[in-house]
Specification:
It is built from five helices and four strands, in the order αααββαββα. The strands form two sheets. The protein has a two-stranded antiparallel ribbon with strand order 1-2. Strands 3-4 form a two-stranded antiparallel sheet. β3 and β4 form a beta hairpin. α2 runs antiparallel to α3. The two termini are 14 Å apart.
Length: 131
């Protein structure tokens, strides 16, 4: 829910730092994340989230969610993800419920994100909209 508004900067920067060793690049990304935004004509500092519509936001989402992708692959699940939208394909309704529960727990506890329960469901792929 509101993924790009709720990304935790410290968690994201820790994942970026796994691959990027250049302190200048890390500092630049941190400044990008913390750059203020205008709300009602007034500058407001950003404490969490990424700039919506910014060119780096989908890339940063991929970096943050890479561990989730690897865990889904390790478990042998087939899935499709673009930025913060994901569909996981399993053989049974029961397996879908289990995956939904474990994925929601991971996202909420490990990444401090909120799962949108209204948009999330276990269902047939052709019955669900994607992107």
């Amino acid at each position: 829910e509101a993924f790009f508004d709720r990304v935790n900067h410290d968690l994201l920067m820790a994942r970026v730092a796994r691959r990027v060793n250049d302190k200048r690049v890390l500092r630049l990304i941190r400044r990008y994340l913390e750059a203020g935004m205008f709300q009602n004509g007034l500058p407001t500092p950003r404490r969490q989230g990424t700039p919506q519509g910014g060119p780096l936001s989908p890339l940063l989402a991929n970096i943050l969610l890479d561990d989730m992708d690897k865990e889904l692959e390790r478990r042998g699940h087939r899935f499709c993800r673009y930025a913060d939208d994901v569909q996981v394909y399993v053989k049974s309704w029961r397996a879908g419920e289990r995956v939904m529960d474990s994925l929601s727990e991971y996202l909420e506890n490990s990444l401090r994100l909120t799962v949108n329960r209204r948009k999330s469901a276990v269902d047939r792929p052709w019955k669900r909209g994607y992107l």
